[in-house]
Amino acid sequence: GQGWYGCERMSNCKDCGRKLTHDEIALYKRMLGRGNVEFLCLTCFARTYDVTEEYLQDRIDFFKEMGCALF
């Protein structure tokens, strides 16, 4: 979606360096604060915060369904 303000260029994961998707950046901001300028991919996010990637994908879907402007 284009609901997010788009001021950040696409970034790379701060741990593994993989190119991040829009949804990964939006999820990181939604869960850990909109002021972040470095982000984690779903794999590294899951490992760092001891959750599953499936849980994180469910959160993405939930935030999209509720109309979160970041997504």
Descriptive report:
There is one protein chain. By secondary structure, the chain is mainly alpha-helical. Helices cover 45% and strands 0% of the residues. It is built from 3 helices and no strands. It has helices at 22-32, 42-49, 53-65. Helix 1 crosses helix 3 (53-65) and helix 2 (42-49) crosses helix 3 (53-65). The longest helix has 13 residues, at 53-65. It is globular and about 30 Å long. Residues 1-7 have low confidence and may be disordered.
What's the short story on this structure?
The chain is an all-alpha fold.
Structural class: mainly alpha
N to C succession of SSEs = HHH
Backbone shape? globular
- The tally of beta strands, per DSSP, is 0
The biggest beta sheet is recorded as:
none
Say what oligomer this is: single chain
Cα Rg: 11 Å
Overall mean pLDDT score? 89
Report how far the terminal alpha carbons are from each other.
Answer: 6 Å
Point out poorly predicted stretches.
1-7
Report the total helices: 3
Q: What's the helical proportion of residues?
A: 40-55%
Strand content: under 5%
